[in-house]
Amino acid sequence: MNLTRRDFIKATIAGAASLSAVSLFSGCDRAGTFFTSASDQDVKTLSKAGFTVDRQSVTIAGLQNEYRLVFLNDLHITIPNEEVREEDMQTVMDRCEKGHIDANGTKAHILWDTIVETLNQLTVDAIVLNGDMLDYFSHANFACLRAGCEKLTAPLMYLRSDHDYSDSYNAAFSQELADRAQRLLDSDADLFSLDLGEVLLVGISKSTSPLSDSALEELTRLFALKKPIVLANHVPYDSLVDNSLRQASQESWQDLVLLWGYQDTLYQTTDNVKKMLDLLYAADSPVSAVFSGHLHFTNDIMLTETIPQHIFDTAFRGTVGYVTISG
Predict the structure, then answer these.
(1) Nearest to 166 by CA among 109, 217, 116, 92
(2) Taking the CB of residue 30, how many other CB atoms lie within 10 A of it?
(3) Strands (E), the chain
(4) Is the pLDDT assigned to residue 4 strictly greater than 80?
(5) pTM value?
(6) Is the dihedral of CA 277, 315, 209, 90 positive or negative?
(7) What is the DSSP letter of 177?
(8) Element counts in the chain: helices (H) and strands (E)
C-alpha cells in the first residue's frame, strides 16, 4: 500500500509501504563490481550538501527489511518582521543573525531551503521534524516552515514543542491563531504513528506540556501491539540507570533538568506522564530506541538496561540525524 502525504499527516497513520534494503550500483572496474547501499548514498548526499550527518543505527532481531529515517530538531526559524514587538526587535535580530546560524553564518530560514532540497534527493521511509522548528510562532516563521514541508516528498511527521507555539516577541500572538495555523499543515495531533511494516514509528507532540488523555490512550494501545517501536519525542527522558544526562543538562541549562522523568525534572510529572513512563520503562516495553532533541547538544544514554536514547544536536548548526533500522 502506498502512503499519500495527505493520509500520513492525519493524527494516527498506518499502512505505509516499507522499502526493502537495496544496493545501488555505483560503478565498476576491472577488479570487479562496486556497490554502495542506499543509506551510504544518502549520507554522501547530505555530506556533499554541507550537513553534519549524525548517523545512528538500530538493530532489531528478526527484521527482514531495512528502514531509513531522517531526524531534524531545533532549527529555530527566525524571521524578523512587523509582527515582532518593537522592544524585542533587537533580540530577534540577534537570534536570527548571530544565534541560529550554521558554521558558515547561514540563517536558519535560509538553511531550511537547502535542507528541503537535499532531503528530496534521499531514499528514506520518513522524515521526523522533532520539535522547535520555529523559534517562536509568527505568520512569517510558520509560512517558511510550511512552504518547505509542502515540498518534501517523503512521508512527514512534524512533532511540535514549546517554541513552535511560543508567544515570545509576537505582539499579535493568540493560542487560537497558532492552533488554527498549525492545523493547516497537518492535524496538529498530540501523538502520531506510522506503521513502517515491521516497525512502528511513534512520535509524541507538544512534549513540554502534560500528556493528554487521548495521547496516553493511543500510546497504550500501540504499546499493547507488542510491535517494535522507535519513539520520537522532542524532550528527552530521564534514565533509570545513569545520572549523566541530568548532570549534562544542569551544566548546560543553568541547573535545570530539561527532561521528562518521575521526579526532580522541569516538565510536569502528571499522572498521565507517570503512566507513560511506566509503559516506556517496563521490562516488556516494545521500545527499541528513543530519539530526542531539545538540549542543543548530542548525547547517548541507556534509559534502562535495554533501551537506548540518542539526542540529536540542533538543525540550525547543520546537523541532520540519519537512522537506519535493520535486523
Answers:
(1) 92
(2) 4
(3) 23-29, 32-37, 52-59, 67-72, 126-130, 156-159, 191-195, 200-204, 229-233, 287-292, 299-302, 308-311, 319-326
(4) no
(5) 0.88
(6) positive
(7) H
(8) 9, 13
How far from chain centre, in Å, is Cα 229?
Answer: 15
What own/partner pairs with CB < 8 Å and gap ≥ 24 does 94-102 have?
A: 95/135, 100/75, 100/76, 100/135, 100/316, 101/316, 102/316, 102/317, 102/318
Q: What angle do CA 236, 239, 242 make, to 5 degrees?
A: 130
Q: Look at residues 236, 294, 291 and name the one whose alpha carbon lies nearest to residue 261.
A: 236
Q: Which residues have C-beta within 8 Å of that of residue 163, sequence separation ≥ 6? A: 76, 131, 132, 134, 135, 136
User: Per the structure block, which three cell numbers stand in for 255?
Assistant: 541547573
CA distance 321 to 57: 11
The predicted model gives 170-199 an average pLDDT of: 92
In terms of C-beta density within 10 A (0-12 exposed, 13-18 middle, 19 or more buried), how is residue 146 classed? middle
Write out pLDDT tens, residues 24-69. Answer: 222 222 233 344 689 999 999 999 999 999 999 999 999 999 999 9
The grid cell for 60 is 532489531
- Per the listing, cell 510558520 goes with 142
CA distance 166 to 122: 32
Would you state the cell numbers that stand for residue 150, as one nine-digit string? 509542502
CA–CA gap between residue 299 and residue 292 (Å, rounded): 9
Q: How far is CA 283 from the centre of its chain?
A: 25
Please tell me the distance from the alpha carbon of residue 272 to that of residue 2, in angstroms, as a whole number: 34
The amino acid present at 101, given as its one-letter code, is I
